[in-house]
Design brief:
Length: about 210
């Protein structure tokens, strides 16, 4: 619950990083560290302009330490004039031996059927489970909510962390998969009040 000393309405502005070279090539990307594509940079510029226009007050800008998130955050930081705070809790899933595999290669993996049936509870060979990401997101939220001096925070991160930010609000954290999509350079917003939390925006691409 938000402290009574906090602003009555607070927002987590969730921005998925711009399109990376591996996103363009449709390969599984967790801890691989690709750069943004030109398209990824252009759409991030548009997103940063939208954020600046819609929310005049930005108190902090957090991002995953992976390059594609940091590149995205730098573009946003230049627009909103807030320094970047990197946080390991915002890392994407470690896909282990599946890192860098394309669709055809993934379909040939012996564990593919188990993954397809329950992707959010699957432990990637040599990596981790999305449930580890869920735990990190929970720790990150707890850290933010212990602070009372902010109203709007931008969080630049990856698909899986954003999914669990959203699922934690709608009460579907134990689902097998997300009933929505989160595109590159898209904005989703969680609004926090004194008594509740709800989704104010989902997968908006300005």
């Amino acid at each position: 619950m938000v402290s009574a000393k906090s602003p009555a309405n607070r927002r987590l502005i969730l921005l998925r990083h711009g399109e990376s070279t591996t996103n363009r090539n449709r390969t599984l990307t967790g801890r691989i560290d690709p750069l943004l594509t030109r398209r990824g940079k252009l759409l991030t510029v548009r997103a940063s302009r939208y954020i600046k226009k819609r929310w005049s007050r930005i108190d902090a800008l957090y991002c995953s330490p992976l390059t594609r998130a940091v590149e995205t955050a730098r573009i946003v930081s230049q627009k909103v004039k807030v320094p970047i705070l990197k946080d390991d809790l915002l890392l994407e899933t470690n896909f282990g031996k599946w890192e860098g595999l394309g669709k055809d290669d993934l379909n040939e993996q012996p564990e593919w059927d188990a993954y397809a049936q329950d992707p959010f509870h699957f432990h990637f060979p040599g990596g981790e489970s999305p449930q580890d990401v869920k735990k990190r997101v929970g720790l990150f939220k707890q850290k933010l909510l212990r602070q009372n001096d902010w109203e709007n925070i931008i969080i630049v991160t990856h698909y899986t962390p954003i999914v669990f930010f959203i699922l934690s609000v709608i009460g579907n954290e134990d689902d097998h998969r997300a009933p929505f999509t989160i595109d590159n350079s898209s904005i989703s917003v969680v609004k926090l009040t004194d008594t509740s939390a709800y989704i104010e925006m989902l997968n908006c691409i300005p």
